[in-house]
Amino acid sequence: MKKRNFLFIFFSIIILIIVSCNPYGKKKEFGSIEIYYKKGFSVEEVEKLGNYLRNNGWDDGETKTVQLLKSGDIYQVRVVVKEGIDQDPEYLSLFRIVANEISYEVFNGKTVEIHMCDENLKTLKIVEMINYGQLLTFDNIELYYTDKVTKEDAENLGKFLLESGFNNSEGTKTVQLTKDGKTYQFRMVVLEGYDQDEYYEEIAREFAGYISDYVFDGKPVEMHLCNDYLETLKVVKI
């Protein structure tokens, strides 16, 4: 998913105007990342979050401030951002992706909200996670799968994509497997304009047929051509 490119831009808009004497909780540092946390979080959870952020490029030398809170069963990841960022639709979409990844990679699938905050850690905007699902990686293919399908379904699809050469071209390929009733949905991020290309649509329809035949024993499959945030642009049916 192209979120990795957006993250380099994203990191530059997170700022720190927090003083350590304020009661934001205990603090643990991960390079240039400061995570404040209160009761309800273990040191292990904080370390998992810190390591996730470092591994995804947040530790770039400019101080970042994050606070962890809980509201019932919801994990709140609160981030100080520059003025106006909370009104930018592209950053809101990006945060939904980040929330999903933090949910599965840090908090075992628990519900996560990203709170975009001012310099006093007052919430400006709450971004709820979209359930992209759990992530499996097959070479340069990122395959998310929701709880509407099984892990075996996702693994079988991933193996098929490798065997079919889906991973041959350069760059990360992002797909998602989910289900609507009895119909499997193969959701794929495509380049801008591909959803309007009739030739590409026919290729997608043929590929959906192969997935139906070779992965899901002839069960119905829809191909969803999606934008960078796995939002459907066009549905291609067999």
Task: Tell me about this structure.
The structure is a single chain. This protein is α/β, with parallel strands linked by helices and 238 residues long. It folds into two domains: 3-128, no CATH class; 134-237, no CATH class. Helices cover 29% and strands 31% of the residues. It has five helices and twelve strands. It has helices spanning 3-11, 43-55, 89-105, 151-163, 198-214, and strands at 26-30, 33-37, 64-71, 74-80, 112-117, 123-128, 134-138, 141-145, 173-180, 183-189, 221-226, 232-237. The chain has a six-stranded mixed beta sheet with strand order 1-2-3-4-5-6, covered by helices on one side. It has a six-stranded mixed beta sheet with strand order 7-8-9-10-11-12, sandwiched between helices. β5 and β6 form a beta hairpin. It is elongated and about 60 Å long.
